[in-house]
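Request: Give me one sample?
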Amino acid sequence: MNELPQQLVNGLLLGSMYGLVAIGYTMVYGIVQLINFAHGEIFMTGAFGALTVYAYILPSGTSMWIALPLMLIGAIIVATAVAVGAERFAYRPLRGAPRLAPLITAIGLSLALQQAVWAWYPDAKSSRTFPQIDGGPFHIGNVTIQTGDIFLLIAAPVSMAVLAYFVMKTRTGRGMQATAQDPDTAKLMGVNTDRIIVIAFALGAVFAAVGGVAYGLKYGEINFRMGFILGLKAFTAAVLGGIGNIYGAMIGGVVLGVAETLASAYISDIPGMEKFGSQSWADVWAFVLLILVLLFRPQGLLGERVADRA
């Protein structure tokens, strides 16, 4: 029990990362009813965009306190370009097609992005070391926080606050809400729905890029496969919170992260369950939680705000 505060903090950090990526899933689904299974790879390309800025653009030896904002900008530019390009050339031509077509396209795009990074980025076949922030770790009572985690602790709530303001208070945000409710009526009221959809993809990519930088700072390395499992978990978080609900995406991410961390830490203490508490089982418990939520509350923790369209 002395380790419980540390495990809760670890779960909060992991869940915040899931939530940042889950926002992209839920925003796109809320507006165009599309599960963008390539979103995990957008998260991955954002991380490689940040690494590219540090390794090939900035002078050698640049302080991370100076480099980090520039790396974040690079991550956002790369991730947003990939997401907007995917919407324009992969998803928009299939907007009136049966739902299975864009779903298969998303899976194919996911594999294509992995292979593109694998083929063209130097040494992408193995994990690449991600630059770290000097200093730390920091100790608060029995809780230890690594320096890289400070970025995530700040970025996650700030990102959510900015998104909430954008959606609720700006003209474009209200256009996004109208398009999510009824795109045909929104178009009749003068809303440029094509522009709104592009903005939804771009915003999701921005949050994924922030998550990609946070991942590199937290784990110290990135690789071209990193988006696959984390993308599935982020999608799980979006479903847990209520797919289409941006606040539910972050809450679902935190719930998933805490549950996964506590399961990995404590299930092995149960007699006969020793082998089920290993790190390799952490992914299993995440999807077990998803199954339980779908069985007992299929609309997610906060329900689904998106209207069912014929």
Observations:
- The beta strands are 128-129, 138-140, 143-145, 221-222.
- Residues 25 and 129 are 28 Å apart (CA to CA).
